[in-house]
Design goal:
The chain is built from 16 helices and no strands. The protein is globular.
Length: about 300
């Protein structure tokens, strides 16, 4: 049918319909390959453990899991390093839904592609951002139960989103991901007590500190005495128990991602060993696992994955 044969009313409706085709697609400042490479660089620079753990994943999933890491990292920095954290986080959230902003930001571009391809639930993204925003209003936690809600927001959500990239058997894997996230975040909290205090935050449950006759004044002074030793032994034992209870969930993941998750968990758990080895002093040094020690542990982790030892 030619336009000359159309009725007057058809011309008017055709003009309306064609206008919808004229919506321009935002011009991207980066190719997807460049965007994913940028996320890889962020992962390498900020988490050698995670970068190493994900190295053997298939290329597509490896790129996606590192885009997830970069997205979480930049989201956290938006709230943690800005002069006006609330405004910065709100702006970042708005950019996540803005095609123009996505096209101009390599992390958002890679993350938007990852989120769509692997059908990552928007609710998990919202839970993550809510956890990050919690740091803007809450600097103390009375109980461990209160703390776990925060741990879920900033850590367990990452595991839940990772499962969609890796692939998993069903909803029975979810409790294991939640528990591993709590274990990882507790490890962060125990390692960073001194640094967090300098930023005005104390994540250690106040009721548990009081049970060991410890106060905020002791934290401020960085006292490493018998009370602190006993308190940290209790905290580390609980974190290790959470790791042990979460690792059977590895068998529920797609084989492509089992080694990555096991390596991330076991290498991070090694931080607890380092805290113990240095007299539980987390005020004057940052506990870590050296690159050499990480590499030495990988063959054993690989064997445990291949032989389903985590069951």
């Amino acid at each position: 049918m030619t336009t000359t044969s159309l009725q007057h009313w058809e011309h008017r409706l055709l003009a309306k319909a064609l206008a919808g085709l004229e919506v321009s697609t935002p011009r991207q400042s980066y190719t997807l390959e460049q965007a994913y490479r940028h996320c890889e660089q962020i992962t390498r620079a900020h988490s050698r453990t995670f970068f190493l753990a994900t190295a053997l994943m298939p290329r597509g999933k490896r790129q996606a899991i590192r885009a997830l890491y970069a997205f979480c990292r930049v989201s956290d920095e938006a709230a943690d390093q800005a002069v006006d954290p609330r405004s910065a986080l709100a702006t970042w959230q708005a950019q996540m839904a803005d095609p123009e902003a996505i096209a101009q930001d390599p992390v958002l571009l890679a993350w938007d592609d990852t989120r769509r391809r692997f059908r990552i639930p928007d609710l998990y993204v919202q839970h993550l951002l809510e956890g990050i925003a919690q740091d803007l209003t809450t600097t103390r936690y009375q109980t461990f139960d209160e703390l776990t809600y925060y741990c879920y927001g900033v850590a367990s959500t990452v595991g839940l989103m990772s499962m969609h990239i890796i692939g998993y058997n069903g909803s029975e894997a979810v409790p294991y991901a939640i528990k591993l996230g709590v274990a990882l975040q507790l490890t962060n909290i125990l390692r960073d007590v001194g640094e967090d205090w300098q930023r005005g935050r104390l994540y250690l449950p106040l009721h548990e500190l009081a049970a060991y006759n410890l106060t905020e004044e002791d934290i401020a002074a960085g006292r490493v005495d018998e009370r602190w030793h006993a308190f940290m032994r209790f905290q580390i034992a609980r974190a290790r128990r959470l790791y042990a209870e979460s690792l059977p969930g590895i068998a529920m993941l797609h084989p492509h991602g089992r080694f990555a998750v096991a390596a991330a968990a076991e290498l991070y758990r090694g931080i607890l060993d380092d805290i113990e080895a240095h007299n539980y002093d987390v005020f004057n040094r940052r506990a870590h696992v050296s690159d050499g020690a990480k590499l030495a542990r990988l063959p054993g982790i690989w064997w445990r994955v291949k032989t389903n030892r985590y069951r």
